[in-house]
Amino acid sequence: MVILVKTYLKLIIGAFVVGGFLAYFFYRDIKLEVNALENQDGTLYLFQVGVFQNPANAENFASNFDSSIVYKDEDFYRVITCLTSNSETKDKLYTYYKNKGINFYIKKVTLDSRLKNEIAAGEKVLSKTSVPEALNEVCQNLLNSFILYV
């Protein structure tokens, strides 16, 4: 009888451990989708590292970064290193750029849902990687999508 109780107890504990691990991974994916749904208003967070009146100066400055674009916003040329619509990814990028010693300003802009749909896949990759080369490559792809819409 004692052996039978110990066996059932081991099975129950094992089920809780396996269930806990599965729940954690499902929760992470659901949390990313909830964050995306929360931000359906079209708000994007741009990591701006410089603002210039002269486009040549902006292009020259942008060349100092692994991922960057220059876009014209009214009378100014803005240098952007990455963008996101997700607050979790925004926090991760914030920490990444601070640790690299890069001064930046997070600029909020509102764009249509077509761009938001395009950047959703890139944001999933950003949320799951910490490799600088991968972060820079995904940021550059997001920036290339962004430049098509501005």
Characterization of this structure:
The structure is a single chain. With 150 residues, this protein is α+β, with helices and mostly antiparallel strands. The mean pLDDT is 82. The chain has two domains: 1-38; 41-149, 2-Layer Sandwich (Alpha-Beta Plaits). It is 62% helix and 20% strand. Helix 4 (113-128) runs antiparallel to helix 5 (132-149).
The CATH class assignment of the largest domain is Alpha Beta
Mean pLDDT: 82
Shape: elongated
The assigned structural class equals alpha+beta
- The percent range for strand residues is 15-25%
Distance between termini?
A: 73 Å
Short description:
The protein is of the alpha+beta class and 150 residues long. The protein has helices at residues 2-38, 55-62, 87-100, 113-128, 132-149; strands at residues 43-52, 69-73, 76-84, 105-110.
List the keywords.
alpha+beta; single chain; Alpha-Beta Plaits; 4 strands; 2 domains; four-stranded antiparallel sheet; 150 residues
Task: Summarize the topology.
Elements: H1 2-38, E1 43-52, H2 55-62, E2 69-73, E3 76-84, H3 87-100, E4 105-110, H4 113-128, H5 132-149
Antiparallel strand pairs: 1-3, 1-4, 2-3
Helix pairs in contact: 4-5
